[in-house]
Design a protein that fits this description.
145 residues, mainly beta, flat
Length: 145
Amino acid sequence: MKLIRTHPFSINRVSDFEGWFRHPLAGLPSLSSFINNLGEAFPGVAGDKLAVDVHEDKDNYFASFEVPGVKKEDVKLELNNGLLTVSAEKRTKDGEKETSSSLTRSVSVPDGVNAEAIAAKLTDGILTVTLPKQERNKPRSITLS
């Protein structure tokens, strides 16, 4: 066995072990590529979700979902226990062969939404769900009798 003498704190040489401490996850795929691959392996887990944009103004919350190529009758909205779920069935026809894919997305609905007045509108592949805010409980004075 031949021994080679090296200086442990050499500036020019970085060992694999030191490199691992500096970048321990460098050899692993990125998280986004992992999620995309997971969606291909297990349809419905990732990759089959609708894109959504959520914003608010002083009177309403808005959730805008991208559903290009989906017809109004193929969209289903459901509000259950503070969770708004949008499901869409996208059908494509390629010659004589018709294929369909299912897209879904759930969004938490904040407290203080008037569930009876929720409205949805589909325009140019954008489904906009309007969630009106309830009027806050106003403080009132109570007199002692």
